[in-house]
């Protein structure tokens, strides 16, 4: 069996994906140079593992379940649009979360710590929960950034009741995220 490219993420409800798809569609007339994320693939990455060796898959699965067991359902709220880097020419366009609950940061920290012990890289970057809407591939239309920041996001609150360990791969020439393990968050 071959290594898999994997990550752990919070999946988004369909209503949130539709809301963000409307933002992408609204910006389409001035979005030359931007590769928009397929709305079906929108998520919040908690931990990017990258190349995950086949021989380590069971240990990764066990650690995922161990960490997820202590987490109950929680709410998130979309609040703003932003970019990475924050200054200068953007490369990533994102939707941010308003007052992310501590559980999101705790999950990210525990995943980093648990997988660091298995040899997975900790990028050292400060965790910033966000939903990647698109990637800028080359110079954008001169009106794009002003149009982007003129879009007002409806402050949609949504319930999170699961986290998923995904494989990122290509199927029939298209990027796909295949669930390897799903953990339903249980109320305490």
Write the layout of secondary structure elements.
Elements: E1 4-11, H1 14-27, E2 34-36, E3 43-52, H2 57-68, E4 74-84, E5 92-97, H3 102-116, E6 130-136, H4 144-150, E7 157-160, E8 162-171, E9 174-184
Antiparallel strand pairs: 1-3, 1-8, 2-6, 4-5, 4-7, 5-6, 8-9
Helix pairs in contact: 2-3
Folded structure, characterized:
- Helices cover 26% and strands 37% of the residues.
- It has helices at 14-27, 57-68, 102-116, 144-150, and strands at 4-11, 34-36, 43-52, 74-84, 92-97, 130-136, 157-160, 162-171, 174-184.
- A hairpin with a 7-residue loop joins strand 4 and strand 5 (92-97).
- Helix 2 (57-68) packs antiparallel against helix 3 (102-116).
- The chain is globular and about 50 Å long.
Structural key phrases:
9 strands; 26% helix; 4 helices; Cyclic Phosphodiesterase, Chain: A; globular; 188 residues; 5-stranded antiparallel sheet
Give the C-alpha Rg: 17 Å
Query: What does the overall shape look like?
Result: globular
The overall number of domains is: 1
Average pLDDT over all residues = 92
Output the helix-strand order: EHEEHEEHEHEEE
Strands in their spatial order, largest beta sheet: 2-6-5-4-7
Instruction: State the separation between the terminal residues, measured CA to CA.
Output: 38 Å
The CATH architecture can be named as Alpha-Beta Complex
Instruction: Supply the helix-strand structural class.
Output: alpha+beta
Number of E strands: 9
The number of distinct helices, counting runs of at least 4 residues, comes to 4
Question: What is the percentage of strand-forming residues?
Answer: 35-45%
CATH-assigned homologous superfamily: Cyclic phosphodiesterase
Characterize the quaternary organization of these chains: single chain
CATH class wording: Alpha Beta
């Amino acid at each position: 069996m071959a290594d898999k490219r994997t990550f752990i993420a919070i999946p988004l409800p369909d209503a949130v994906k539709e809301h963000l798809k409307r933002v992408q569609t609204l910006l389409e007339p001035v979005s030359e140079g931007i590769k928009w994320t397929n709305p079906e693939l929108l998520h919040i990455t908690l931990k990017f593992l990258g190349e995950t060796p086949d021989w380590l898959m069971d240990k990764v699965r066990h650690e995922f379940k161990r960490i997820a067991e202590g987490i109950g359902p929680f709410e998130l709220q979309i609040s703003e649009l932003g970019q990475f880097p924050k200054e200068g020419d953007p490369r990533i366009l994102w939707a941010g979360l308003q007052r992310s609950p501590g559980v999101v940061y705790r999950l990210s920290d525990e995943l980093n710590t648990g997988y660091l012990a298995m040899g997975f890289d900790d990028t050292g970057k400060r965790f910033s929960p966000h939903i990647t809407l698109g990637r800028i591939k080359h110079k954008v239309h001169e009106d794009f950034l002003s149009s982007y920041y003129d879009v007002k996001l409806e402050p949609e609150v949504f319930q999170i009741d699961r986290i998923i360990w995904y494989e990122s791969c290509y199927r029939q020439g298209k990027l796909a995220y295949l669930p390897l393990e799903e953990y339903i968050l249980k109320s305490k």
